[in-house]
Amino acid sequence: MPSAIASPDLSTQRTLDHHLGAFAQGLDALLRDYDDTSVLVTPDRTYAGTAEIRAFFQAFIEGADPKFWQAFRIIRNSVHGEVAYLVWEARPWVTLATDTLHVQGGRIAVQTFTPFSA
């Protein structure tokens, strides 16, 4: 008999899919993937809670060249349990980037983000 509870893989994939699609919908849609206990770790700083994460993504979105989004391409997408791993590029701005998301209860609990540029 199938379980009524979504598997961790399915819940994580849904959250990752929403996160990726939310960039086109705006900052409020993007922030629905996080809560006040969420943490975003980058090479420069750790952002804790939705207010700090909002500030990070607002700067990221506002600072991106409009052509960045057309150049965005996913190279690898892997989900295992509560963890999603994403490798992407948006050349020439980002030659390679990785995101790792730890998803709990349909929210991103912890995310790491590391971009590499030419």
The order of strands across the largest sheet is: 2-1-6-5-4-3
Total of domains: 1
Radius of gyration (CA) equals: 14 Å
Largest sheet: 6 strands, mixed
Q: In whole angstroms, how far apart are the ends?
A: 52 Å
Which percent band covers the strand fraction?
35-45%
Low-confidence stretches: none
Mean pLDDT: 93
CATH class categorisation: Alpha Beta
Would you spell out the secondary-structure blueprint of this structure?
Layout: H1 8-25, H2 27-31, E1 39-41, E2 46-48, H3 49-63, H4 68-71, E3 72-80, E4 83-90, E5 94-104, E6 107-116
Parallel strand pairs: 1-6
Antiparallel strand pairs: 1-2, 3-4, 4-5, 5-6
In short:
This protein has four helices and six strands, in the order ααββααββββ. The chain is an alpha+beta fold.
Structure commentary:
With about 120 residues, the protein is of the alpha+beta class. The protein has a single domain (about 10-115), classed as Nuclear Transport Factor 2, Chain: A, CATH 3.10.450. Helices cover about 35% and strands about 35% of the residues. It contains four helices and six strands, in the order H-H-E-E-H-H-E-E-E-E. It has helices spanning about 10-25, 25-30, 50-65, 70; strands spanning about 40, 45-50, 70-80, 85-90, 95-105, 105-115. A six-stranded mixed sheet has the order 2-1-6-5-4-3. Strand 4 (about 85-90) and strand 5 (about 95-105) form a beta hairpin. The chain is globular, with a radius of gyration of 14 Å. The termini are far apart. The model has no long low-confidence stretch (mean pLDDT about 95).
